Amino acid sequence: MNKGRAKLQAFGGFLTAMVIPNMGAFITWGFITALFISTGWIPNEHFNQLVSPMLNYLLPLLLAYTGGTLVYGQRGGVAGAIGTIGLIVGSDIAMFLGAMIMGPLSAWIMKKFDKLIDGKIPTGFEMIVNNFSLGIICFGICLCSFSFIGPLIVQANGLVSYLIQQLVKTGFLPILSLINEPAKVLFLNNVIDQGIYYPLGMQQAMETGKSIYFMVASNPGAGLGLLLAYCVFGKGEAKRTAPGAIIIHFLGGIHEMYFPYVLMNPLLIVAMILGNGAGTFIFSLMDVGLAAGPSPGSVFAYLMLTPKGNFAGVLLGVAVAAAVSFLIASFILKASKSTGDEELEASKERSRAMKQEGKDILNRELAATEKVQEKKAVQDAGAEKAEAGKAEAEQAAVQNAVSEKITNVAFACDAGLGSSAMGASAFKKKLKTAGIDITVKHYAIERVPEEAQVVVTHENLLDRAKMSMPGKRIITIKNFLGDPNIDLLVQEIMDQYK
Q1: Phi–psi pair at 213, nearest 5 degrees
Q2: Are 465 and 452 in contact (CB under 8 A)?
Q3: Which whole-number Å values give the CA distances from 182 to 176, 186, 335, 461, in the listed order?
Q4: What is the tally of helices (H) and strands (E) in the chain?
Q5: Strand, helix or coil for residue 235
Q6: Please, are residues 481 and 244 in contact by the beta-carbon 8 Å criterion?
Q7: Residues 399-407: contacts with CB within 8 Å, 24+ apart?
Q8: Rounded to the nearest 5 degrees, what angle is found at the Cα of 484, between the Cα atoms of 481 and 485?
Q9: Is 270 exposed, middle or buried (0-12, 13-18, 19+ CB in 10 A)?
Q10: CA atoms within 13 A on the CB side of 64
Q11: Euclidean distance between CA atoms 431 and 493, whole angstroms
């Protein structure tokens, strides 16, 4: 995976870190909308008054505050909220996209200013400078967002909305699956969902009480069909782990579970594209939608957020996506000489080699890096010396991590709430069965704490993990259920605690 994709994944992870902590508020709004608007289950004019203020003020400000906090703590959160209120008041649309931009941007400006004056404030004047600098800078940001930034975002939002609405009107909305499905298996799904579909969906739901945008990338049906095909036509570990993956994916809503199964046989992306496209076609044909974004994308979340009169179309769309995906995936698996088991076996062999010669592998990788650096040294000896020193420091840190007793393991994924939570729970249970009690927690990949000695993450997130945690010992896996690298780590810890 190249660094460009890793950075794009990191961007998606940042969007997720803004949205996920506030999903409870979004779901609350969805319930109020589904129940009390004029077309809801129990229309109520009094409670319906909550819908618009929550959509226009509460939810964007929550996003902005959370995004600002991620950039610069509580001070950044305050700056983000103030900058976003200018957008909200200066526009006539729900400013979700604007909040995701203005919240972090305002915090970043505040952070840069504080860094500029750091160490230059006279003793005794710290509080007055800090408070008034926040007030004055946010005053300027708020006016700027009200007058200039807001109108630009409204125009950009209008253009994106127009293009996608044209797809809806012409019946070509299913072609979005050509973008959605490859992006999902490359762990870029959060860029699409949180960055585009959710903001558009909230705006449409405000007007109609539902939106198809919440479903074009979150339909669990296609993944279900793929995993069912592996249950029937898979082999070895792929077949053995598929039933468990179905439960976690379809009922638990963690779509990352089926990504490795596609990556085992990349041609299966065709089944995912056509399955999801068929489901979206049914949703569009029957004019159905959800009241809010289903996060996680579980069938239970779909049912709870389905508005009155939409159940038949929603369930049919999920079923059709599963059926189409199953049929195509079954044909591909039957026609293929391999269902990915060779890759799994190769992974086992590599894992055994890692256990026996882990340090040698690390040294070879670092030697390759050093060779490139030496070539660069011919052109720039001074820069190379600095890079070599950095590489040596990272090498020493990783080698120390390999040799020291493990007391803290981190499982990391995009948002830190889905597959990593599941992996950490299963890993902790294995250790508990062996009578070992160490710290095992799950995190977003950019928020793994320094005290974590070993980081376990999916192999497609390796570049991103290296960017966030240089020098940290990282173990990659293909599958969160029964991966041999996890078993080897468990055995390593058990050996240490004998």
Answers
A1: -60, -30
A2: no
A3: 11, 6, 22, 15
A4: 22, 4
A5: coil
A6: yes
A7: 399/359, 399/362, 401/453, 401/454, 401/472, 401/473, 402/358, 402/359, 402/362, 402/473, 404/453, 405/496, 406/438, 406/453, 406/454, 406/492, 406/493, 406/496, 407/438, 407/439, 407/453
A8: 100
A9: middle
A10: 29
A11: 8
Are the beta carbons of 145 and 83 closer than 8 angstroms? yes
Could you tell me the CA-to-CA distances from 229 to 163, 169, 217, 273, 329 in Å, in that order?
35, 33, 21, 15, 6
pLDDT in tens, 271-314: 999 999 999 999 989 999 998 888 778 899 899 889 888 999 99
> 138, 142, 144, 413: which is the annotated catalytic residue?
413
Contacts of 223 (CB under 8 A, 6+ apart): 249, 250, 255, 257, 258, 272, 325
Specify the amino acid at residue 419. Answer: S
Enumerate the H helices of 171-268 as residue ranges: 177-185, 189-192, 198-208, 221-233, 236-246, 259-264
Most confident residue range from 255-259, 270-274, 332-336: 270-274
One-letter amino acid of 298:
S
Confirm whether 231 is a catalytic residue.
Answer: no
To which residue do tokens 């994924």 refer?
413
Cis? peptide before 53, omega within 30° of 0: no
Q: What is the DSSP letter of 453?
A: S
Over the stretch 24-71, which tens digit does the pLDDT of each residue have? 888 888 888 888 888 778 889 899 899 889 988 999 999 999 999 989
Q: Hey, what amino acid is at 352?
A: R
